[in-house]
C-alpha cells in the first residue's frame, strides 16, 4: 500500500464521533475514494457526514448507515447493503467499543453490562471482518487492511473492568490468529493490525488515571500512529511502549510479584477507581 489511502474505500465502525470520526477525517484528507461510516447515533452520523462532505468537496464519497454493531444480525444486513451500494471496502477499521461502569465483576448485570460489552467489543469485530474478508481475499492485486482496535486492558487483568478486559483479550487473540491464518493461506495482500492502546482522552475513560509510564494518550497521537502502522502493514501496535514492558514483566515475574511491582507500584490496579466515563 502507498503512503496514503488515496483511492481506497474505507469502512469505519463507530464512525459518527470520537476516534471513528477522526479516522474518517484522515481518510478524506488523503483523498480516499469512499468512506462508509457505521454508528448507532443517527444524529452524530448526519453531522459527521455533512462536515466530511464539505471538506472533501466531492472528492470522497461519504456513506452512512445507522447500525448498532451489538446487533449481530444488523451487521450482516448492512454489510450486504454496503457491498451492493458502495462495494467491498479495502480497509475496515473495527473502532466501535463500549465500557460500562466502575464496578466489581459481581456487581455487574449480565444483561446490561456483560452481554452488550462482549457483543460490541468482541463479537462485532469478528462478524464485520467475516462479512468483508471474502471480497478482500478475492482480489490479490489490491492490498487490503483490517484494523482491530483492542486495548492494553486485554493484555493484563485490571480491577473494575473485568468484562471490558475479557472482551479486549478476545479481540487480541482472534485478531492475531486471523493475521497468521491469512499469511499461511497465501493471502498476504490482506494485512491485519491489532492495536492495544492504554487510556485515550476521548471521554470514554473519563476519570481514569494513567499508571506510571503509561500516561493518558492524546487522540491525535493515537490516530497518527495507527495510520502509519496500518499503511506499513504492521501486525501489532502497542501504545505507549510501556504496554510491551508490562507484557514482558507479566511473563517473567511471579504473579504476586507482578501484582506488587506493576499492579500496585505502577498504579495499574488503581487506575479505574475514579472512572466516570461519558456523562
From TrEMBL:
<dbReference type="InterPro" id="IPR020904">
    <property type="entry name" value="Sc_DH/Rdtase_CS"/>
</dbReference>
<keyword id="KW-0560">Oxidoreductase</keyword>
<dbReference type="InterPro" id="IPR036291">
    <property type="entry name" value="NAD(P)-bd_dom_sf"/>
</dbReference>
<dbReference type="InterPro" id="IPR002347">
    <property type="entry name" value="SDR_fam"/>
</dbReference>
<comment type="similarity">
    <text>Belongs to the short-chain dehydrogenases/reductases (SDR) family.</text>
</comment>
<dbReference type="Pfam" id="PF00106">
    <property type="entry name" value="adh_short"/>
</dbReference>
<protein>
    <submittedName>
        <fullName>SDR family NAD(P)-dependent oxidoreductase</fullName>
    </submittedName>
</protein>
<dbReference type="GO" id="GO:0016616">
    <property type="term" value="F:oxidoreductase activity, acting on the CH-OH group of donors, NAD or NADP as acceptor"/>
</dbReference>
Amino acid at each position: 500500500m502507498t503512503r496514503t489511502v488515496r483511492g481506497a474505500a474505507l469502512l469505519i465502525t463507530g464512525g459518527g464521533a470520537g476516534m471513528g470520526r477522526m479516522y474518517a477525517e484522515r481518510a478524506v484528507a488523503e483523498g480516499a475514494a469512499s468512506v462508509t461510516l457505521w454508528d448507532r447515533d443517527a444524529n452524530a452520523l448526519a453531522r459527521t457526514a455533512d462536515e466530511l462532505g464539505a471538506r472533501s468537496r466531492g472528492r470522497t464519497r461519504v456513506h452512512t448507515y445507522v447500525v448498532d454493531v451489538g446487533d449481530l444480525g444488523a451487521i450482516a444486513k448492512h454489510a450486504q447493503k454496503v457491498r451492493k451500494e458502495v462495494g467491498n471496502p479495502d480497509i475496515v477499521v473495527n473502532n466501535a467499543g463500549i465500557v460500562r461502569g466502575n464496578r466489581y465483576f459481581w456487581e455487574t448485570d449480565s444483561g446490561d453490562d456483560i452481554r452488550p460489552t462482549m457483543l460490541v467489543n468482541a463479537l462485532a469485530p469478528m462478524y464485520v471482518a467475516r462479512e468483508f474478508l471474502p471480497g478482500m481475499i478475492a482480489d490479490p492485486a489490491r492490498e487490503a487492511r483490517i484494523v482491530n482496535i483492542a486495548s492494553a486492558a486485554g493484555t493484563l487483568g485490571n480491577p473494575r473492568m473485568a468484562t471490558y478486559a475479557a472482551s479486549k483479550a478476545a479481540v487480541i487473540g482472534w485478531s492475531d490468529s486471523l493475521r497468521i491464518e491469512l499469511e499461511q493461506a497465501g493471502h498476504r495482500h490482506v494485512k491485519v493490525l491489532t492495536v492495544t492502546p492504554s487510556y485515550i482522552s476521548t471521554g470514554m475513560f473519563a476519570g481514569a488515571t494513567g499508571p506510571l509510564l503509561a500516561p493518558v494518550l492524546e487522540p491525535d497521537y493515537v490516530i497518527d500512529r495507527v495510520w502509519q502502522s496500518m499503511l506499513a502493514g504492521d501486525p501489532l501496535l502497542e501504545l505507549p511502549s510501556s504496554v510491551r514492558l508490562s507484557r514482558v514483566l507479566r511473563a517473567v515475574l511471579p504473579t504476586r510479584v507482578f501484582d506488587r511491582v506493576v499492579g500496585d507500584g505502577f498504579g495499574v490496579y488503581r487506575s479505574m477507581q475514579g472512572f466516570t466515563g461519558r456523562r
